[in-house]
Write a structure and sequence with these properties.
about 190 residues; alpha+beta; Jelly Rolls; four-stranded antiparallel β-sheet; cNMP-bd_dom; RmlC-like_jellyroll
């Protein structure tokens, strides 16, 4: 199971066998059932997760009780409330499993010990932060500059698996539109 994570690390940074063994000694495996919340608003995110198999969602709940999905993570991707993890302050986000999922995780303490011990882990972290920043920046740009129809069409073209694997409710919260608007867009 951990080979997928090793491959993910080595796509971003070259890691020798000894360092990879040290990194993997800090990793814990988890299986979570669908609808399991692994982080709630107000909790501190003390673990960095990597989703090997399944689907997870990172989202907010507004004061009005509306869900706003920031990120949907599928197989072979990191999933964590990064701001809470970095600052060790309470999260404003929730993370839940949309499908039965298999996760790897590393504690905050081990993560940052490895940063000091292993230069390639620090490079991995920097490159991962750069990718996360670029992805979230593109998401904000899309939400600000594209119409609901354009956002839906872009998602359908670039990430059709979102439409195939996610409920209309989750897709709508990801696109920042109502379920009714999504239904109208899908029917055209």
């Amino acid at each position: 199971m951990t080979d997928i994570f090793k491959d993910f690390i080595t796509q971003l940074a070259e890691v020798n066998k000894q360092d990879m063994n040290r990194i993997m000694s800090c990793i814990t495996t988890h299986k979570v059932k669908r609808n399991t919340i692994i982080l709630s608003q107000g909790e501190v995110c003390t673990r960095f997760y990597f989703l090997e198999k399944g689907c997870m969602r990172t989202y907010y709940i507004t004061k009005e009780g509306q869900e706003k999905t920031r990120l949907v993570s599928f197989d072979n991707s990191p999933v964590t409330a990064l701001t809470s993890f970095i600052t060790q302050k309470p999260s404003v986000e929730y993370i839940d499993a949309l499908e039965d999922s298999e996760l790897l995780s590393i504690s905050y303490d081990d993560f940052f010990i490895l940063l000091n011990e292993i230069p390639s882990w620090a490079l991995f972290y920097r490159k991962m932060l750069e990718l996360a920043f670029a992805f979230q920046n593109r998401r904000i740009e899309d939400l600000v500059t594209l119409s609901a129809k354009e956002r839906y069409e872009k998602l359908l073209k670039e990430q059709p698996h979102y439409i195939q694997r996610l409920s209309n409710r989750v897709v709508a919260t990801y696109l920042g539109i109502s379920q009714e608007t999504l239904s109208r867009l899908k029917s055209k």
